[in-house]
Amino acid sequence: MQVFEKDVSFRGLTAPGYFNFSDSQTADTKKYIAWFDSVTQLIKDQVTRFDSFFRLWSTYDYSTCTISRTPYVAFLLKKYGIQWFIGTDLQAVALICLVSRSYGTSLTLNYQYFFQALINAPFLWINGTPQIVSGYKDPAIFAENLVIYSNAGSLPATPAAMPYVDKSWAAPTGWTKQPSSSTYVSHGYLSAGNIIWMTPRATSAAITYTEIANTSSFPGSPSSGDMAIVNNDSSGDYGSIYYYDGAIWRKTTTPNSYQGLALDLSLDTRAVMAPGSTTELSSLIPPPVSGPSQGYGKYAGLYQSTIYTGSINIVMDLTTAGNTNLGTIIFLLRKLKPSIIALYLNYSVNGGVVNKITILDKGAV
After folding, report:
1. Would you list the DSSP string of 249-286?
2. pLDDT per residue as tens digits for the range 175-213
3. Could you tell me the residue ranges of all domains in the chain?
4. What Rg value do the Cα atoms of the chain yield, rounded?
5. Taking a C-beta distance cutoff of 8 angstroms, is the pair 78, 99 a contact?
6. In whole angstroms, what is the distance from residue 310 CA to residue 304 CA?
7. Could you tell me the pTM of the whole model?
8. How many alpha carbons fall within 13 Å on the CB side of residue 27?
């Protein structure tokens, strides 16, 4: 659309007689006129462009348009290479702050700042506080065995049901979790967040241990007190221990994935031992990722007091929203990742199965 019909060329704006516009003009005059014409044409084009835009803007009905992102926020997201982020504008602004800010030389402080941002509003992507382990070691996941012992001289009463506290439940009065010449034992199982204790039996009583593949393979004629180690009970748990109470098989261990990750292995000895010699407190060899051990184990943590920085393991439990934005979390971790050092993200979603991701350097294929 041509808006301006008036001649705004240099010839049209110049009074007659000032310049020689005939064919006999000099080469220099011709160059000057061409130059001035270019300048005036640029002005004309710019004015026409603005006029066309605002004519269209003023006549178009925008009432049906849906604006999903504040334009300037969208511009900044694109500037920092995260235009694919689909969260709210408020989250987008906070994300831009995380990406654009400068970070110091302390990895610990950098990660603390980063994780605290993701734990709190407007993100709310992480449950609890993530943990960081540096060195050539992986965290261990372990299940608890719900069993208590007594030194009573005669059959003690069955303990009352008690609330289960993850890794922090205490034995009932008169019972202990650590046997020492104990005379009676009681096994428990979880029900509605409580530990239900079963009838005690003498530690001297004969019992049968059986290793089976799944819960459809329990022995046909068990005796009260018999135990079975179930390789896979179809709950996502491996190596579970079941106890026959005289009427039904009860699971007396907690699910491995339910426990979460234990990082300070020197303070918690209930982690599964990794393959190695029987004299080692821990092993350099990590357990296999499949099978009864599920990759869990206490290894490479106690054999050597020196902390290496050859790798970093980050452990976190994501919310549902955090799992949706896992790609963004990995993007941010790569921004903080030191070059060369291996970085592993061990994550679960709302306390579920733990997954492990290797986060490569920027530019890695």
Report:
1. EEE-B--HHHH-EE--TTT-TTSPBPSS-TT-SSBSSP
2. 998 887 889 999 999 999 999 999 999 999 988 989 898
3. 10-59, 143-254
4. 36
5. no
6. 14
7. 0.43
8. 0
